[in-house]
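Aim 2 progress update. The chain analyzed this quarter is reproduced below.
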Amino acid sequence: MKKISVAIFIFILSNSVQAQIIAYFSHCSFNTSDNIPYMETYLSVFGNSVSFKKNAKGQYQGMVEVEILFSKNGVIKASRKYNLLSPEISDTIHRPNFIDQQRFPLDTGKYEIELSISDKNINGKKYSSKNYVQLDYSESVVSISDIQLLSSFTKAEKQSIITKNGFDLVPFVSDFYPETMSELSFYAEVYNTKTVLGENEKFLINYQIQSHESGKPLAKYIAFKRETTGLVAVILSKFNITDLPSGNYDLVIDIKNKDNKSVAHKQIFFQRKGVIAKISPEDLANLEIENTFASKIHGKDTLKEYIRCLRPISSGAEKEFADNQLKLADEKLMQQFFYNFWQSRSAFSPEEAWNYYFQDVKTVNKKFGNHIRKGYESDRGRVYLQYGPPEKREEFPNEPASYPYEIWVYYRLNDKSKSNPAQTNKQFIFYEVNLAMNDYQLLNSNAISETADANWEMKLHKRTTQTNNYDNTTAPQHYGGDAHDEFTNPK
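Predicted structure tokens:
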């Protein structure tokens, strides 16, 4: 599934002391009843990615230095530099994530926003990233604030930085909803209805979830509320997304006047990884596929081949069904399985999702296949299809003391077969024992659920380094050998 990010940035800081600091950053613009725009920023830091040290109370605490700058035409208009502290904990076994929110009053216009972060507990290297934002709240038109995604909202007992219109709003600093999340909550504000539409006039607020690719709304996810014109109208609501299939979506807010004409529109992208339930032949038999792309795929051999190539991105239930049910399946059942597979991943464009994936299958078959098996059946092909192409691929075909090998680096690793959170800074090393076969095997990886072999260096150099000491995990130094450094410290 292709990742599409809107106003959400992921920062990964690497240095020699600590592997990474991971933080999610997003922002939303709002206006006041006095027409004074402001920008809110939201920063979520992964506790396991920063150092925790004992403070004066004897408790462990993380500390991240944060600097946020807003510039217009090269001139800094607003800035803030501060230390963001984690909750205090008694031990570092489970380091909690921590969230920060800031507000910046700004004039209308286009700004460059720059965020810099560093781990203060280890004097970490500063990492910065920039983006552009636009604030435009004209008094002559109905307008909508940015849509703020929420982790939760409750009635406020006292005023705080996260309080708006009597509610405490905990920001959700991501655009990815895994299967473990069953609700999508959001907040927005509507301005100038009284000025533009007239006093005591009725208007309608529509909000819905629609397919990102087709723009078509989902019938189960359409809602509305009637309002009377005033200074500010508040939208605070949620959708139950338990049954929302995997896919790319937009959350849309549309304001309509008494004549049912749209006067303001706002939307935000999000991505969903839905639940893939256990599959049974009885369930598939009730699936109507007439006039779908799957119904046009004929021939058992073709369908079996297409289904086999799905294995790298299949769930456990899908693999089990394919292994147990499809060997003797009739053509229609295979068509139904194939269509159900892609509809569960892209409800409104299953054929497009299949075509996109099939291009990757053709790529791995060409690059990693041989006369014995298809590329998607190889270790490199499986990793490519399951995680996407690596950000960095280094090939070492001619080191004097080792088998030919490759190292793949992923700065951000998304598993298409599971709904696990993304991993960062992961490496894979493949080697070829059967020379000239283009059949590289996965030797070692630091990714979750992948092959982890402490003796990988010894195996890589086995043709020149023979040993019976299986406790030795590091091969002797060889002339021209770079595997250890390349894998542990990818450049």
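Confidence is low (pLDDT under 50) at residues 1-19. The chain has four domains: 1-136, 138-275, 281-376, 390-488. These observations will guide the mutagenesis experiments scheduled for the next reporting period.
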